[in-house]
Amino acid sequence: MPIEEGKDSNQRTQSRAFPLKIIKFILIFLAFGIGFSLLSMYMIRYSGFQNIVSTARSGFQPCYEEPDGLNRWVKPPLRLTHTMSDPELLWRASIVPQVKNYPFKRVPKIAFMFLTRGPLPLSPIWERFLKGHEGLYSIYIHSLPSYRAEFPPTSPFYQRQIPSQVAEWGEMSMCDAERRLLANALLDISNEWFILLSESCIPLFNFSIIYKYIKKSRYSFIGAFDDPSPYGRGRYNLNMAPEINISQWRKGSQWFEVDRRLAIYIIKDTLYYPKFKNFCRPGCYVDEHYFPTMLTIEASHLVANRSLTWVDWSRGGAHPATFGRGDINEAFMKRITEGHSCLYNNQPSTLCFLFARKFAPNTLEPLLQFVQYE
């Protein structure tokens, strides 16, 4: 019958069209999926390339792309600026390798640490002294936070200021500044010896003599003596006991040289620091007593009990003599470098002082004539 035949024909047409729609849908879905995958791959590759370019331009490398993991710990910080607080800095600097054999070629360096309020007027002398010895020294400067040095890029003092705070003479803030210098210098694993200097200090001999003298010494050089006078034991406070008793109380110059082991002792101390902060107040001059006393208690067998920095106290007063332009002549320089006697590695020696102070800025020109450092 025509009507029934028409219905069958339509049903057969619809049944054939339905699978075609499914196949068409699947093909469209596959095409869309493949296209999306290709687009995603392109975006990832392009984004990765852009990240590499960005990384190269900025100098930043994420942890998972660190090319040489050991370099992260071996190489010194490229910049001395950081945002660490003092507690964070001291904690970071106190981390000590437990394996004594270094898995890399380590050339031990001297860290010259300058504690100053502002400029370094004698820096040309130090630049002459350091020239040709790159890789054997590091420079660190602690100044007033407001001071900004303007050394040229060719100077070893260029960008060597550390994050600093105000340090007052005779106050605990002075010891804080010295610990801050030590902590920043300890971040360079190659720094082995640490010398505290002022802006009025000069080296008395060439770099090779000083480097060899310090390298071969069995001891660190920090003054630590028992002074029974009112300016020594007279500054002791009974509240420091039992951690510190009067027989352990020591006095010495703040201008020291310590090796890495003693530098760690100084920056990790939490036992003696509160005693000195609370009970060695104005009139005690904490910078003359804290380190000498603490190191005498903790490591007296490692201390030479003398300073490497020559000063002249013959003029009297609370401060050593300051020398001006008119003082600088050949006889004066011989007086500083000759005629001394001391012990070096428990043997008599006439080479006792490697540095001297206090020299006024106007001594720069005559000093350059007398100190050649050849």
Automatic annotation (TrEMBL):
Transmembrane segments: 22-44
Keywords: Glycoprotein, Glycosyltransferase, Membrane, Transferase, Transmembrane, Transmembrane helix
Membrane topology, record value: Single-pass type II membrane protein
A GO term from the CC aspect: membrane
Subcellular location: Membrane
InterPro entries for the chain: BC10-like, Glyco_trans_14
GO molecular function, one term: glycosyltransferase activity
Keyword Transferase among record annotations: yes
Keyword hit for Repeat: no
Protein name per UniProt: Core-2/I-branching beta-1,6-N-acetylglucosaminyltransferase family protein
Species the sequence originates in: Acorus gramineus
